[in-house]
């Protein structure tokens, strides 16, 4: 048995405790109340064992090469968490994880993960707050603890299922990876998702954000999913969040009130905070080669910022890499707009070289190559480009 | 469930998980009926590698430490490799090789394939250069990847496109020791490579 990416992704959907298969039952019940700020589970409780395991995993995670370290971005996301969580601020540690899929999670010990695919897709701070608020909802109601207790006995099977992984680097060396298997089987139930949505909306309003960010995010994800059936099947969020259309309707209904339409969006602040990593996020999205989905994402972001050269470059890359009929022209049009606007990366010219060579326009390719080297004299792929230009 | 049925269940499960190896002796070998190479030392051929596609996988120290993936004629429209899975219908559509690709595009394709296979955002190719492969025009580039086990692996891909098919070999291993130690062996192996059978026509 090997892990699909879908399963791996699910590991981080706030279901991390599922692998813990031993522990005393029936202690520290979650009840219906919110978690107390500064809460620690009582010693000898089953929940304490769960926390210890998550603490160990978090220590390992702190060294991960997949964690984005940029101080400004980390500080910014943490500020959003604290603005929503207020009294719980000191209980939450945020980790931004370089994974090009839409997801966030919250472990019961306060370890929050925000994936970079989510950051790429949000239009503004209100949308980010919608997801963070939702995860805070799961945390405050201790849903993961509830789910863990529900499935504890079944979880032993997942350890067996993980035995078949033999591929170097893709194997099951991390508990977080193993959790994927279980997470794909056991998602939060509908009531828990609804409750987390409600708490998230309440936190957003109290923090001064427009709660409209919540239905907007779902709407965007559904549009992405509709760009391809296969792509939807592999969506992490839809794997663990049932009935997306129904949830979108419910969120729209809950945010219909006039007073809900006021509140801050924090758009400029959001864009400025992401500036240092956006190119990387775009490249990670492109590496997935999910052309339909990426096209929807970049077009939607371009609708917000039509003068963004990086996004035009990204759109061009979708077409170049897809390589279908008419895609060379589409790519060149997008690169052309990228160059005319602001923020196009030097790689735009590298891509023009590749497309022009495909079209047999060697002179144009050579000119684009020279421009690329002017902008990026230290380009590590200059030798490779020279090689293909000579062929 | 009786004790016997439980034992049988786990035995069956483990049987499906075992990775059978076949010894590859240091004598001329034909890989996938199309590539002939002369190893200078003993290798192990993996019966179950997790790689799916027109590939054959060898290792010296075990797949966690180093692997040599032979590409035995990837056709236009085929992926370089995918991950073997019990639920292929749930896999995202993989990027595919096009016969019209130039070496830089093959490098991009390997990057994307590796990123998907190893579930990583840390996969790069670099230093693309021409290389004589199987008595003809080919290319070589370096790779670097960090998988979910956080181990840094480096490697070299050498390939050639003949008759609209991609033939090649990608040797990669843990940056500390397990790649560097066998890099000369890989170079020797590449120099000895010939296309045979259908690929030589």
How does this structure look, described?
The complex is a heterodimer of chains A (391) and B (201). By secondary structure, chain A is mostly helical. In chain A, 60% of the residues lie in helices and 3% in strands. Chain A is built from 21 helices and three strands. In chain A, strands 1-3-2 form a three-stranded mixed sheet, with helices on both faces. In chain A, helix 5 (125-140) packs across helix 9, helix 16 (291-304) runs antiparallel to helix 17 (309-322) and helix 20 (362-375) runs antiparallel to helix 21. The model of chain A is unreliable at 1-31, 157-167, 171-186 and 230-234 (pLDDT under 50). Chain B has 201 residues and is an alpha+beta fold. In chain B, 19% of the residues lie in helices and 38% in strands. In chain B, strand 2 (29-31) and strand 3 (35-37) form a beta hairpin. The longest helix of chain B has 15 residues, at 3-17. Chain B is globular and about 50 Å long. At the A-B interface, helix 1, helix 11, helix 19 and helix 21 of A face helix 1, helix 2, strand 9 and strand 10 of B.
Brief sketch in words of this structure:
By secondary structure, chain A is mainly alpha-helical.
């Amino acid at each position: 048995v090997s892990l699909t990416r879908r399963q791996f992704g699910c590991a981080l959907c706030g279901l991390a405790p599922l692998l813990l298969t031993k522990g005393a039952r029936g202690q520290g019940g979650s009840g219906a109340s919110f978690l107390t700020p500064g809460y620690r589970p009582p010693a000898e409780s089953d929940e304490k064992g769960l926390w210890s395991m998550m603490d160990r995993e978090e220590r390992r995670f702190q060294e991960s090469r997949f964690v984005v370290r940029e101080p400004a971005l980390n500080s910014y996301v943490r500020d959003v968490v604290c603005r929503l969580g207020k009294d719980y601020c000191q209980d939450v540690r945020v980790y931004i994880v370089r994974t090009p899929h839409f997801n966030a999670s919250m472990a019961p010990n306060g370890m929050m993960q925000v994936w970079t695919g989510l950051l790429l897709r949000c239009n503004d701070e209100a949308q980010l707050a919608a997801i963070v608020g939702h995860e805070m909802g799961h945390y405050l109601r201790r849903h993961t603890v509830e789910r863990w207790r529900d499935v504890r006995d079944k979880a032993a099977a997942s350890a067996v299922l993980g035995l078949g992984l033999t591929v170097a680097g893709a194997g099951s060396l991390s508990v977080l990876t193993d959790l994927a298997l279980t997470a794909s089987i056991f998602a939060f139930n509908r009531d828990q998702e609804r409750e987390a949505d409600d708490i998230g909306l309440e936190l957003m309003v109290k923090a001064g954000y427009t709660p409209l960010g919540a239905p907007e995010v779902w709407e965007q994800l559904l549009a992405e999913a509709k760009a391809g059936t296969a792509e939807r099947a592999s969506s992490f969020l839809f794997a663990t969040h049932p009935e997306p259309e129904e949830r979108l309707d419910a969120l729209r209904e809950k945010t219909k009130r006039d007073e809900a339409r006021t509140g801050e969006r924090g758009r400029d602040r959001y864009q400025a905070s992401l500036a240092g990593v956006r190119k990387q996020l775009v490249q990670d999205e492109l590496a997935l080669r999910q052309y339909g989905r990426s096209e929807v994402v970049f077009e939607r972001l371009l609708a917000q910022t039509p003068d963004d050269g990086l996004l035009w470059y990204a759109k061009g890359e979708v077409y170049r890499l897809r390589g279908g009929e008419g895609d060379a022209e589409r790519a060149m049009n997008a690169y052309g707009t990228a160059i005319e606007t602001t923020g196009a990366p030097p790689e735009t010219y590298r891509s023009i070289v590749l497309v022009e060579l495909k079209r047999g326009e060697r002179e144009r390719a050579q000119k684009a190559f020279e421009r690329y080297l002017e902008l990026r004299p230290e380009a590590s792929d200059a030798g490779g480009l020279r090689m293909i230009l000579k062929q | 469930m009786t004790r016997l049925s439980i034992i049988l269940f786990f035995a069956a499960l483990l049987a499906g998980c075992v990775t059978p190896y076949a010894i590859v002796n240091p004598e001329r070998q034909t890989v996938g009926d199309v590539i002939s190479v002369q190893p200078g030392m003993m290798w192990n051929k993996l019966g179950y590698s997790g790689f799916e596609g027109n590939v054959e996988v060898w290792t010296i120290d075990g797949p966690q430490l180093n692997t040599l993936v032979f590409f035995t004629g990837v056709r236009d429209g085929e992926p370089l490799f995918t991950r073997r899975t019990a639920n292929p219908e749930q896999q995202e559509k993989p990027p595919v090789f096009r016969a019209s690709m130039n070496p830089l595009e093959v490098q991009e394709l390997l990057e994307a394939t590796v990123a998907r296979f190893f579930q990583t955002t840390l996969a790069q190719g670099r230093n693309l250069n021409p290389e004589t492969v199987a008595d003809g025009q080919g290319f070589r580039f370096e790779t670097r990847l960090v998988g979910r086990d956080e181990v840094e692996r480096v490697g070299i891909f050498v390939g050639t496109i003949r008759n609209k098919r991609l033939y090649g070999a990608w040797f990669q291993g843990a940056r500390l020791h397990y790649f560097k130690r066998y890099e000369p062996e890989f170079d020797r192996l590449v120099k000895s490579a010939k296309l045979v059978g259908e690929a030589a026509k």
